[in-house]
Fold this sequence. Notes:
The strands form two sheets. The protein has a six-stranded mixed beta sheet, sandwiched between helices. By secondary structure, it is of the alpha/beta class. It has twelve helices and ten strands. The longest helix has 16 residues, at 176-191. The structure holds adenosine-5'-triphosphate (ATP).
Amino acid sequence: MQGAALTVRDLSASYGPVRALRSVSLDVPEGGVVTVLGGNGAGKSTLLRAISRTLAFHGGSATGTVQFDGKPVHAQGADRIVAQGICQVPEGRQVFARMTVEDNLRAGALGSRGDRGAKSAALRRVHELFPVLADRAHQRAGLLSGGEQQMLAVGRALMAEPKLLLLDEPSLGLAPMMATRIADTVREINSQGVSVLLVEQNAALALKLATTAYVLEVGEVTLSGDADELAASDEVRRRYLGVVDEDAAADASQAAAKHPVLARWEDVR
Length: 269
Ligand code: ATP
């Protein structure tokens, strides 16, 4: 597997009258991990759908350009996008619950560019990354735990031998230990040469994984830069990492001490 670069320019998207993205531009360098942070409804899933060309399945449409590996891909069908090496793991651990784990993985290889040998090699790599998927090969996917289903969703995408993996909130609803496990695996997948575009509400986890980060608010990129620098910025610390602004807290408590109504509010808190 060998990563490839993604260039998104002026991407706007809507669902009928609902504008979900406004003129978004971003880059994923070859072999890089880039994260897009944002709260509920910011447009993160829409961004991934527009890149993977699955937006129409959700009733949406997009304008703007997307280049992958130096070629424009924004006018291609979703199947061509997979064939060129872009695979999306949608939000919500979408596995085929009634099918076995093995059949879920086989389904992932349907759009693959590789021959039989390449598919067997891809399956071996998935089993090395997630041994539980080999142990449970003949079980129905719906019987796996939430974390195991997320592993299966990622494993299924890997069966198509992506150059770029689009991950939609892989930590959503997982216990912290399982979220860390998934993050470790994303790091491992990236070290094997796959570029990653990760959208997350879990900023702490995403900023540890990524080298570059973008913040999306109501469909627009409001901040972007080096992930370490963004993680240290007051704005991101306050809004996405839940860190209290110490100066603001000190000012508020001084004001409360001087003001009787605020002081009473301090008492009841
Ligand atoms: P979350 O973290 O909650 O999943 P998100 O950042 O992924 O949110 P999107 O799901 O991309 O955000 O939604 C962006 C906007 O588009 C929201 O206003 C949402 O209500 C709207 N939207 C998303 N999907 C559809 C759809 N299929 N039809 C109509 N509107 C939609």
